[in-house]
Amino acid sequence: MICAFRRFAENADGALAIFDSGNRLVYANRSFRNAFLLGESAQGERLEALPIEQNFLLALVGALSLAREEGCEQRFEWECTSEETAPEGKVLHHQGRVVPYSLSEPEGESPSRWIVDIPAPPISARVEELLRGARQGQKQADFLRRRSRQLFFDVIDELPIFVYMQRPDYIVAYANKKTRNFYGNTDGRRCYEVFNGLDHPCDYCPTFRVFETGKTEDWQFTDSLGRSFHIYDYPFEDENGDPLVIELGVDVTELKRVERELFQAQKMRAIGVLAGGIAHDLNNNLVPIIFNIDYAMGKLGGQEAEEPLGEALRAAYRAADLVEQVLEYSRQQNLKRSPLHLVEVAQENLALLQASLPDGIALEVDYSADQDCIEANPSQIQQLLLNLGRNAVQAMPEGGRLSVSVYSSNVRAQTRHMHMRVPVGDYVVLRVADTGQGIEPERLEQIFEPFYTTKRNSGGTGMGLAVVHAIVMSNGGRILVDSTVGTGTTFTVYLPQVRPAAAADTAQDAPAPVALTGRTPRLLLVDDDLGALTAMRRVLLEAGFEVVTASSGTRGFEVYREEEGWFDLVLADQSMPDMPGLELCRRILAINPTARVVICTGHVDPSLEKDVADAGIAGFLTKPMNPARLIESIRRLC
Question: pTM (2 decimals)?
Fold first, then answer.
């Protein structure tokens, strides 16, 4: 019988348990164990030690005590307030009974064991319990979803890239910390207001293709501050399921700047190779043009011949200037630099510029720098000032105001500009402003490119600002430009400050050449270009020199060796195929260390400058020169 009862109890839906007269648990079926004992058997444990709810415990203890006293079945009930079984603050009522277990007791004796019977809830109650479990599971799922979403936003808020979310009506639904720090609070604002400072949508926006297609997009964007971004767009939705686009913006402003500088450097190298290759031949060809036109103008009288010859001569000089500008732009700037005061250089060169200013242009200067010492090459700074000044004058054909100022500046935080980045440091600043025509925004990116000019009809070559940019960058500086069409343009040049050099001892003058008295200077002229050789010989003979010519380096050396000691000066072209001028001069100095030899060339690169200095050669004459300069230089050298 007992075994039969236990088989029945184990498979019953209701909760069944047997307690002895000492309230110890003798047996509990599966339903009782699952409902009240956390799945454990707890056999032999006293009722008070079981892990059951307090209300159920008190009701069951009372029912067992009363059943033992009266010796008959007792019913009981209790209220359940546990959150696990009665969620949302509800109170559930449960019922049970205590029945004598007398199957094994002798007839006529009081029962020593008692069955606790708690019926299974009806089907509706079970359904309600399942629904409660489902609701509880949904609440947990919602909590986890909210927690995951918050964690997601906490992470992207700290990302070092720009992250924001956009709705189809242009409203910025979310912006992370980096975006807010740059563009301010975005709540309720539209994307074109935040990022472009506009009051209307942008003409074109790839973001809206994501709303239409549900596919990702990536594209480039430049904001109203001139910062460049690579944008990655992804479809997203808010907590209500409404569509969003989440945008990740990677700031590529610095990368773009480095790309521009690298591209500029590559162009400089390419132009340098080209210029170095053609400069000598081009300048050699300009020598006979300039010399012969000058000679003809001196021999032919009358305005009828002078006017066209003068135009041709001016064109030749413009060509020579252009070659020089290209060489200056492309040169790797291995020039000798020394401390110099920018205010002094500016005063000297602006005085020259002012003398040539057209009527209607006023020059205003302001020298407020308390520290104006920079380390640079004086001729480069002179060219920088004059090129910026001429560029400003050309921008004011109807007249205007040219303002030049020099002041000190301490950049404490890296200054960012649309076209350049100014690192932290102490600078001497040169500012050149005009009230001219201004430059369109789309052209600002191109103004420092070689041969780019908007003044082609007024004689612009497109090399002036390119040379300025090369000079500034080679001296470790930065140049910024701001321009408004119809208002004017301002160029701001930052050059690193240096400590003023201590007063240097006055350098001893180099010993002056011994003056030639009682005889005409004798020259040896060596050049493989017969046109240049003939033109220079003609001019020098007219000036009273005795001139011997040689059309190659080898022949020049033979002539010098045959007439050793007879020549007061040797003028040798550098680029000769059989023997370069430098090699010829070295050979002459080897047999006569006191000889005065000069290299004449159309292109002087830094390595040639160093080799000439090391060899003890007297110096350079740069082609093309005009006849007067050639005569003056030779008289000085002799």
Answer: 0.46
